[in-house]
Fold this protein.
Amino acid sequence: MNVQSPLIAFSNPYFQLTRNCLEELIKSGNSNYLRTNFDENISKEDSDFALKEKTKWSDYNVIQPILFNFYHSLELLMKGIIVLKNGKNSDKSHNLEKLFFKVSKIGINSPILLEKLEKYCLNEKGNNNPISKFLKTNDEKPSNYIHYLKYPFNLDNKIFKYNDLRNLKQDGIEMAKEIMLDIDIIRNEISNI
């Protein structure tokens, strides 16, 4: 990465952590249960431990913090682009939609990067992926990620429903693969801004 921006550089470990976690989710098979034959010689503690080990990387257990890291990396990247192009950081908010519009107006040399940022920052209603379903179910926008991926309820104490992000089995694996691919594309395109 030859781009000189502390915020862009700071986004990199968050992208990497997201990618590493999604890789573990995929390797684990995204299982939320443990299928075994009954064995009276196995204690409940051993059985519980085996279940925790088998499911520790499942979307049921880790998808919100993984997505929080991902969206935080997008926020850092966009703030870094704004600083790089404008010479100052004037936006202290976490609103991904506003940050995306600022980045798109600045004019960067990567339509592919803009396309990926738009995909996650605007999340058009017609999309049918798990993140879009979650947003639709909860009547939320990507710009509010700081709330629904960090807390179980919004500022009005409305409890979020996470069913669209959890227990997805193969769909969760496909979502993980897609995000990993998009991270690779985003990181590769940073040098073109």
The CA atoms of residues 138 and 161 lie 7 Å apart. The longest helix spans residues 59-86. The chain has a mean pLDDT of 87.
